[in-house]
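Input:
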Amino acid sequence: MGTDMALVSMGPMLKRAQAAGYGIAAFNMIDYNSARAIIEGAAAMKAPIIVQVSVKTIRHWGYKPIATWVRMLAETVEVPVALHLDHCSDGDVIRRCIDAGWTSVMFDGSSLPFAENKARSEDIYRLTEAAGVGLEAEIGAIGGVEDDKFVAEDSAILADYDECLEFVKNMPNLAVFAPAIGTAHGFYKGQPKIAYALLEKITAAVAIPIALHGGTGLSQEQFDRCIAGGCAKVNISTMHKHRFIEGFVAVRQDKPKLEEPLPFIIGQYDAMKKDVTDMIVAFGSAGKAAHAAGEDAER
Ligand SMILES: [Zn+2]
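Output:
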């Protein structure tokens, strides 16, 4: 790898990951400490990484602080780092992220009727193509809670195969496609029923990497099958939030009289980073930084 790297767009590296059969972790950052744990965890594993941000996190910190933190951290490591906007149905937020330096965005029109989702996704696609950033788009309904949207797990709707083909037809350069395949956001109650056959059928027909939402709590076997089936982007949000809170609280439980704040921040960082490195191993992306960046071919 060369020296420090600027932010990269996730599309090309997801294509390389899908072709080689590994998954790139996409963690939802919470604050600077969290972004640092994600990026430095990836650097420790020589792995490509996607730092993604939910709309409510942007509303809390602002666009510029987040873009500045992530770019600055990316410049200190030698692995490719992408900055991505997670589930967003607001075109204005998408535009502001692009202006602030995000390298990809997700338009989530999955709550809209199919034709409207397709039309609005294509509008955003034209915008992202013109701006040179990647786009993730979703169809079907992924179960669980994402920000203020709640989809009951038993009413989560699998993506329809024919609609998938129709949906992506006019978006050939989509960075990643998120069809609902039976996974859910949050912690699973009981075993998720993942529609592997549907996933494989979509992957065989569509030359676009697939996103696996609701990665928290899936087993190694489930990760392996999803990644082998075409999922190149694996989202982890719930476990990262859990480590953020528990990492901090564990320091207080261990040292009830501690008055120095930094050990709390460090305990929180260590807990988050451990999960990042564990997931990178689980997804098979350890040591893949140069491959994902497209630098293997140059040797
Ligand atoms: Zn999601």
